[in-house]
Design a protein that fits this description.
This protein has one domain: 3-Layer(aba) Sandwich (NADH Oxidase), CATH 3.40.109.10. The chain is built from eight helices and four strands, in the order ααβααβααβαβα.
C-alpha cells in the first residue's frame, strides 16, 4: 500500500470480527514499533502483547472502571472484540538515566530539565507506527488509555514492575464493516488554515 494511502485510511476502529490476526502480523507490528524515534536512542519502551482469550479477559477485568460518569458500555462491547491488545509501556527512569550518561551529561537527573515527558512521546510514536502498520496489513486498530484509577489493578494482573507506565493500548483486528463511529462522525476535521502558522502565530 502506498504510504499516503496508509495515512489517509488510518482511523480508530472500535469493533472487530472474530477472525484471528496471524502471529507474524503481530510480530511485524512490533518490529515496526521499535523503529520509532527515541530521545537519546534510549528505547525505554516495552510492549505487553495479549492475544489469548484469557489474557484479554484479564486485561478488561483489571482495567474497566466501575461506576463511570459516562456510559462506556457500547464502547467496551466493541473494543472487547479485538483479538489482539498491545500495551505500550515506558520507563521514565530509563530516560533520566540515559541523559545522565557522559555524552548527555545531565548528571543531576533532574526531571525539570525535560520540557515534556519524552518517555511517553516516544512510546506514542511507536504506537502510531503500529496503527499505520495495521492499516498496511488491511487491519483496523484503536489507541486508547488505561483509566488512572485502574493502573494498580492492571499492574497486579500482569506483574508489571512499578518502573513501567502504560502510555496506551493498541487494539488490533479485522474491522467490522461500517463499525462503531467515533468522534470524527460528530466533529469536522479542522481546516489547515486554522492550525498551521507559517513564520509567526
Amino acid at each position: 500500500m502506498e504510504f499516503q494511502d496508509v495515512v489517509r485510511r488510518r482511523r480508530m476502529v472500535r469493533r472487530f470480527t472474530d477472525e484471528p490476526v496471524p502471529s507474524e502480523t503481530v510480530d511485524r507490528l512490533l518490529r515496526n514499533a521499535v523503529r520509532a524515534p527515541s530521545a537519546g536512542f534510549t528505547q525505554g519502551w516495552s510492549f505487553l502483547v495479549l492475544t489469548s482469550e484469557e489474557e484479554r479477559e484479564r486485561f478488561w477485568s483489571a482495567t474497566t472502571p466501575e461506576g463511570s460518569e459516562r456510559d462506556m458500555s457500547a464502547w467496551l462491547a466493541g473494543m472487547r472484540t479485538a483479538p489482539v491488545l498491545i500495551v505500550a509501556l515506558t520507563s521514565q527512569a530509563a530516560y533520566v538515566g540515559r541523559y545522565a550518561e557522559p555524552d548527555k551529561g545531565w548528571t543531576d537527573r533532574d526531571e525539570a530539565r525535560w520540557p515534556v515527558p519524552y518517555w511517553h512521546v516516544d512510546a506514542g510514536m511507536a504506537a502510531l507506527l503500529m496503527l499505520q502498520t495495521a492499516v498496511d496489513e488491511d487491519l483496523g486498530a484503536c489507541f486508547f488509555g488505561i483509566d488512572a484509577g485502574r493502573l494498580s489493578a492492571f499492574r497486579d494482573a500482569f506483574g508489571v514492575p512499578e518502573e513501567w507506565a502504560p502510555t496506551g493500548v493498541i487494539a488490533v483486528g479485522h474491522p467490522v464493516a461500517g463499525g462503531a463511529k467515533g468522534s470524527p462522525a460528530r466533529r469536522q476535521r479542522k481546516a489547515m488554515a486554522d492550525i498551521v502558522h507559517r513564520g509567526r502565530w
